[in-house]
Amino acid sequence: MSKTAKKSVFVLVRSDWQYHDDFWSGDYAFLRGYATRAEAEAAIPGQPVDRAFGRAEQGYMVVEVPFPEGGP
Amino acid sequence: MPTFVLERYNWRRVGPAAWLRLPGEVALAAFDTAAAAHARAAELEAEARAVVGHPFRCGGSLRELTTLPGFAFQDWLSDVGIDPPDPDPDGSLPWLAWADLYSGEWSKSQLEHVWEGANRVRFHRVRERTAAQLHAVVRVRWSPPMNDTNYLPDTEGGMPCGLWHDRAAAERDRDRKQPFAADEVAGGMEMAGESRFHLDPRRRVVAAEPFAEVVPPPPADVRAVTHCEVVEIERGDDAAEPLGAWAFVVLRQGWDNEDDPECGPGHFDNDNNYDYGARKGGVLVRAFRLQEDAERLRDELEAEYRGLANPFRFDLPRVPVGSDDNALVCEWFASLGLTPPAITAAFSSDYFSRRRLYAAWWDRSADCLTAGQHAAIWEWVAAARFHEVREVPVGDGQELSPRRVRTLYYVRATNWIRDGGPNVNPHRFLGAFADRDRAEDVRADADRRARTNQTPMPWDRSGSEPNAWEEFSSWAKPDMRRHFVEHGLITEAEADNFVPNAYWWDDLRPHLRPAQAAAFWEVLDRVRLYEILPLETEVPS
Q1: Smallest Cβ distance to A56: which of B142, B191, B438?
Q2: Hey, which of B113-122, B237-246, B368-377, B395-404 has the most confident mean pLDDT?
Q3: Apex B518 CA angle, B513 and B519, nearest 5
Q4: Test the A interface: residue of B183, B184, B409, B465 with most A CBs within 10 Å
Q5: Hey, which of B103, B116, B272, B487 has its CA 20 to 30 A from B182?
Q6: How would you class A61 by CB atoms within 10 Å of its CB: exposed for 0-12, middle for 13-18, buried for 19 or more?
Q7: Which residues constitute the domain of residue A49?
Q8: How far is it, in rounded angstroms, from Cα B100 to Cα B54?
């Protein structure tokens, strides 16, 4: 086990998906980084509404990213 | 010190001269003294009565107008010389048409007497507030209507995101969420090909002013409207007991009565039946520390509203009128000793008209139902409730030491990486770096290593996307072919109409010299396997 605490930052990500005829594709919007996962989750502006006929769906996730230069 | 809150019952205008009362109240103003609050309430009540004219425009059945039984209400009118209407052929009394016809002939004192007898048609009340006030951040939901026009907001309320004891903290939270929410809606509109639409706040603004003519603001850009707002909510229990990390909030559903083909005058709909969990919207009523206390208030409010409302006006999940199996419905009504409205062939496949038939049946019959029949129909129809209890985070625990914002440079694999596409591996970050040069070194190194075995044309294998050369390169195709011939990647004979693809590359790659591989990648100048995202990051100061 490393003696050095793992340093990370947490990125709030929004996924924008769109349904095509035969597969899902989409893109991600990378919104902002935070020092803790809790702060990133607290910044989520509610959960987005479902859209008519399921044409598209959006959601949020928090991604942990290594911060090799040390903690923020 | 107590505060006196002036509230309006949640009336909704449902036509040029028609109003219905939905569950709940809307706070209008707060006063230090009861006298001041009651004086203002009396003024507003008089103004509302002047707009409405007579109380029979405020409900379909007598039950919605008064607590008096029908015979007693008729006696009440006779006391001041007003003759009640003659029954229609079906036995019902046409109160609205009768009042529209004759109310102009009533004296001022007769009209006041009618208003007094219609004791359920009250527009305002004063309530003493002693409980602690909290501040909630609410997400206003904007959604596309069915008929491809501008996006519309929740008519009232929204999704509760968090509770705060401190107003300033709530406003900071709102300011933090607002741009993300606007971006999210803009992204959704773009995906759906609806970026040409605007966001139209009209129905929310109009619903907030049932007795006044308002000029709503025009439709606006997605980033110019409110997506997150701060609203006040009271504790429903003893504020001396502090809230934990979560509170239990009684939420009442918001209802729309326009802009939906299934929603004619006097019929209400909302998106919640198509939504689920925390995505549902509503209006915050009270906050509690304990779930059972919140559920008790929910049940009280539910019973109170069921006592006066028409269940068939609401698009509740178990409204039976969408069912083709009318015989079952008739059988069920018969078991209660009732006869449902006759469904003629003209209505058999018309969902909305059948709803209207049932609503009209209730207006005629509600005054004659026994308590058991009344409760049974409500239980049957309204499996979903007008109120629910929702767990909402209490934000104060999230207030941290001050943060400062600095830009970090995130190195990320792009969607060019052949790993099944963004839905399999969407966000592979190699790391975050304070120094841009360091990030560029990491990116370049990763990019160099990836090029040795990475096809630049991952989509070729799916067969689902056209292989558009312009996505890979800024080079014109003849220039590319000449370049490849010069470096021995293809022969002169192969050059005609040549376009590289993943199969060609996979066959060729093991035999290439490094200079040839470099020449190949030189052409594919639009393919970036790794990218740097400069992203604002909140770090402790």
Answers
A1: B191
A2: B113-122
A3: 95
A4: B184
A5: B272
A6: middle
A7: 10-66
A8: 8
Looking at residue A23, its pLDDT comes to: 41
Between the alpha carbon of residue B279 and those of residues A50, B161, B282, the distances in Å are: 8, 10, 10
CB B11 within 8 A of CB B210: yes
Interior angle at CA B230, CA B164 and CA B173, nearest 5: 60
Calpha distance A59→B476 (Å, rounded): 39
- Rounded average pLDDT over B157-176: 93
Q: Which of B252, B157, B160, B159 is nearest to B207 (CA)?
A: B157
Residues 6-35 of A with CB under 8 A from B: 9, 11-18, 20, 22-35
Report yes or no: B11 and B22 within 8 Å, Cβ to Cβ.
Answer: yes
Written as six digits, the tokens of B371 are 């308590």
Q: Which residue of A has its CA nearest to B435?
A: A69
CA–CA gap between residue B349 and residue B321 (Å, rounded) = 10
CA B510-B512-B518 angle, 5° bins: 125
Place of tokens 């199996």: B325
Q: What confidence score (pLDDT) does residue B172 get? A: 92
Task: Say if the ipTM goes beyond 0.90.
Answer: no
Is A4 contained in some domain?
A: no
Q: Return the DSSP state at B384.
A: S
- Decide which of B308 and B290 is more confident: B290
Q: Which pTM does this prediction carry?
A: 0.82
DSSP B77-134: HHTTTPPPPPPPTTS---HHHHHHHHGGGS-HHHHHHHHHH-TT---EEEEEE-SPEE
Does the distance separating the beta carbons of B423 and A16 come in below 8 Å?
no
Complete DSSP assignment for B394-420: BGGGG--S-EEEEEEEEEEE-TTSSSS
Helix axes B70-78, B108-117, angle to 10 degrees: 160
Could you give the 3-state DSSP secondary structure of residue B490?
Answer: coil
